[in-house]
From TrEMBL:
This is Diguanylate cyclase. The chain holds residues 420 to 696 of 702 of the full protein. It comes from Pseudidiomarina insulisalsae. Residues 23-275 form the EAL domain.
Length: 277
């Protein structure tokens, strides 16, 4: 019996070892890709629910590796966080975004605003505001919305408050991402002087089959309106969801129903073609 145990521990050890070494390999390749600036960005349209116009785009980071293939952002963002390089990733994403905005400003009359995701770890870098401003240079901060999750704001609320205030003073817009999934009250979040609430995908996708989710979505929209905030619904996948959100007074929708995240070139072709200057 003892032997059998030993054997199963052996197999378990081997599996664990294989998993650990695969993760280490993935981490090494990620760090190399970051070093070589190989990460790219995709853009997903944000639609004005009343007019049907594309008025914004969320920037989503992408990593394609020759050997590992496409690795999901949830996976490599987690690696970046653990390796302490999320700020570096953030700057690379912001520079790529700036390149896109510069081109759009040259070629189009009216261009959508862009939203960039910012993680808690980025707040701890002391030069974050200066780095952001240097990175975007001639592009106006007003063109850029920074998306921060409720839980990331709460990692270090005092620091987050200081940094978001400074960013906002320079003209960046502020959005709370995945809104409704955290534990903080909106009254508390109001201190952050946010401009936009992004209603979490889970409520949007449940609201047609679950009365509670619908009530929650309705309440978030009503609350946001009374506070003068804009609302974006995430993960809109069907006509019915889009129609209900519009009826409830949500301003903007984002999701596969309107468009998937695509490369900057494809985004231009699909969403800006009729706006040539
Ligand atoms: P997120 O900020 O909540 O981004 C929205 C995610 O929902 C994206 O996943 C997007 O592709 C996906 N999505 C959009 N529409 C739909 C839909 O209709 N249905 C469904 N099921 N999903 C939809 P993605 O691109 O895999 O990114 C995952 C997460 O990784 C993001 O969640 C964000 O937290 C993080 N992330 C991505 N890029 C960056 C970045 O540049 N910096 C940081 N800090 N985080 C990033
Ligand atoms: Ca986001
Ligand atoms: Ca989100
Ligand atoms: Ca999310």
């Amino acid at each position: 019996e003892a032997k059998l145990h030993e054997l199963s521990f052996c197999i378990f050890d081997e599996q664990l070892e294989r998993k650990v070494s695969a993760e280490r390999h993935q981490t090494e390749r990620f760090l190399a890709a970051l070093e070589k600036h190989e990460l790219t960005i995709y853009l997903q349209p944000q639609i004005d629910l009343k007019s049907g116009e594309c008025v914004g785009a969320e920037v989503l980071c992408r990593w394609f590796d020759q050997e590992l293939g496409t690795v999901k952002p949830d996976v490599f963002i987690d690696i970046a966080r653990k390796q302490g390089v999320l700020a570096e990733l953030g700057i690379q994403v912001l520079s790529k975004t700036t390149e896109v905005l510069r081109k759009w400003q040259r070629d189009y009359e009216a261009i959508p605003k862009v939203s960039v995701n910012v993680g808690a770890q980025q707040f701890t870098s002391p030069e974050i505001v200066e780095d952001f401003l240097y990175c975007i240079r001639d592009v106006r901060p007003e063109q850029i919305t920074l998306e921060i999750t409720e839980s990331d704001l709460m990692v270090d609320p005092v620091l987050a408050l200081t940094v978001t205030r400074r960013l906002r003073d320079h003209g960046f817009k502020l959005a709370i991402d995945d809104f409704g999934t955290g534990y903080s009250s909106l009254a508390y979040l109001q201190q952050f002087a946010v401009d936009i609430l992004k209603i979490d995908i889970s409520f949007v996708q449940a609201m047609l089959r679950d009365e509670q989710s619908k009530t929650l979505v309705n309440t978030i929209i009503a609350m946001a309106r009374s506070l003068g905030l804009e609302t974006v619904a995430e993960g809109v996948e069907t006509t019915e969801q889009a129609a209900l959100l519009k009826e409830l007074g949500c301003h903007f929708g984002q999701g596969y129903y309107f468009g998937h995240p695509v490369s900057p070139d494809d985004f231009e072709k699909q969403w800006l073609a009729d706006k040539k200057a």
